[in-house]
Design goal:
mainly alpha, 2 domains, 20 helices, globular
Length: 486
């Protein structure tokens, strides 16, 4: 049997090896895309094996370089990381299937570059997932930003370049201005940057005011979480091709943000330490209030947007804040609920973006107001969109409904009744901006008699992710077993 540390290193480097293979077969599209498909499958198998080893109590870690004493590029397997990594790897496979149809049907240029940077982005996501300390997390967090920039600007036009500038300036600016100082301050306080169960700051002597300030340096420094007001880059990035939007919203980028914040809350601050300092408005509870504000505000903005991808972008901003809201309850149960919603949101939101891309590819329609009757011409895609919308709203037994129920239970355990109110209010707002789309698709007459040709690879990908959304209650048991190890 292969050593666990070797398996961890192989998993980390597989996407980067794939990027080289994709470049090698740049002139042979079928082989180029086969590299992505095969690598993502192998990676998924490796990660499941690592997850199983974690479940039997194996310690899986690896150290690559030590730059200075105590500051090393180090990796460690833990429950939150393996869940995020599995989500990224499995959805990489599905997104590659979708991209086969989308990129070719839309005649997109520079497809080799697209697949190369997509693979690199997945590799950076794994680096974040398996980071054993804040230094390693920061290195791969920044690398993820730069590796996704060419994807955001893929079209190469003026609008894409402008959006890419916003993307880069906001994310890099936030991490340099806030995230990096937070890391330096943490090392100064604790003498270590290692992710440690129970946290490393409870004996630091930090005042309550200092604790709140440090917490928000991390939260706003990790701009990928899109917590308001650090959200503007996300709608701007919607100029990218739909597979990139899927990467940004479901597979890697925003998930890297909320995952990093959740991991820092659990392993750097410690839930007990934050909970002990959560009384009053200007306390660690302020994070929950800001997350709740983001949920409601982003949902209201989504209602006003006619462009489908922009509406979905603001939906993502709101849904990400569910994860932050859960983590900010500061209990073991709430961290578990946050991790559950990372997976639940990923499978439903990627289906929504896949469906939006399928509508546009087949009909050229990008706005909600243009989708009248499209459900009759594209029933499979429209049904998938409806199911995923219901999941995002929070219908029981679907992915989003089950994870939101866990957030509600965690809030009730800590006597946060107002969080339950926010959850139900946001469900109403979600219904207001999601259900009219499906109503138009199925019950309003189309103004166009144009024949629509359905794209098989895109439909296969949409079917797979819809099945994931429907069957979440079956595989959430595996996720629960991993989370029991927290």
């Amino acid at each position: 049997m292969m050593e666990s540390s070797v398996l961890l290193i192989i998993a980390l480097f597989l996407p980067f090896i794939a990027a080289s293979g994709i470049n090698l077969f740049s002139g042979q599209p079928n082989l180029r895309e086969a590299v992505s498909l095969i690598t993502s499958l192998i990676l998924s198998v490796c990660l499941f094996e690592m997850g199983n080893r974690l479940l039997i109590g194996e310690v899986v870690e690896a150290r690559l370089f030590e730059f200075i004493p105590g500051i090393a590029l180090k990796f460690h397997l833990e429950p939150l990381g393996i869940i995020y990594a599995l989500v990224a790897a499995i959805l990489w496979f599905v997104t590659t299937i979708y991209s086969l149809g989308y990129m070719r049907a839309n005649g997109k240029r520079n497809q080799t570059r697209f697949y190369i940077f997509f693979s690199i982005a997945i590799g950076c996501s794994l680096g974040i997932a398996f980071s054993a300390n804040l230094f390693t997390m920061f290195i791969f967090y920044e690398a993820l930003t730069f590796s996704t920039y060419p994807l955001v600007t893929h079209k190469g036009d003026e609008k894409s370049r402008k959006s890419g500038k916003i993307y880069l300036m906001m994310l890099v600016g936030a991490s340099i201005a806030f995230f990096l100082p937070a890391i330096i301050w943490t090392e100064n306080l604790a003498g270590t940057l290692e992710f440690t169960e129970g946290g490393i700051l409870d004996q630091s002597g930090l005042s309550k005011l200092g604790l709140v300030f440090l917490l928000f340096l991390f939260v706003f420094g990790i701009g990928k979480a899109a917590l308001m007001p650090m959200h503007r880059w996300l709608p701007a990035a919607m100029v990218a091709p739909t597979p990139v939007s899927a990467l940004l919203h479901a597979v890697a980028v925003v998930k890297a943000g909320v995952f990093s914040i959740t991991k820092i809350i659990f392993y750097i601050f410690g839930t007990h330490y934050l909970d002990d300092n959560s009384g009053g408005f200007f306390s660690t509870s302020l994070l929950a209030y800001i997350a709740a504000f983001t949920i409601i505000c982003a949902s209201i903005i989504a209602i006003t947007k006619d462009n489908l991808k922009t509406r979905l972008a603001y939906s993502t901003i709101a849904q990400l804040s569910y994860i932050i809201l859960a983590a900010s309850i500061f209990s073991i149960a709430s961290v578990k609920a946050a991790a559950m919603h990372i997976a639940a949101h990923a499978v439903a939101k990627i289906t929504l973006f896949f469906s939006a891309g399928a509508f546009t590819t087949a009909s050229g329609k990008k706005n909600v107001s243009e989708l009248n009757g499209i459900g009759r011409k594209m029933p499979l895609v429209a049904i998938a969109f409806l199911i995923s919308s219901l999941s995002m709203i929070g219908l029981p037994f679907l992915a989003g409904g089950e994870s939101k129920l866990l957030i509600e239970h965690a809030a009730e355990e800590q006597n946060y009744g107002w969080i339950t109110f926010v959850l139900y209010l946001s469900m109403v707002l979600n219904a207001i901006y999601y259900l009219p789309i499906s109503y138009r698709a199925f019950f309003m007459k189309s103004k166009s008699g144009k024949e629509i040709v359905n794209n098989i690879p895109m439909q296969i990908a949409i079917t797979i992710t819809t099945i994931f959304t429907i069957t979440y209650i079956f595989y959430m048991d595996y996720i629960s077993k991993l989370l029991e190890m927290l």
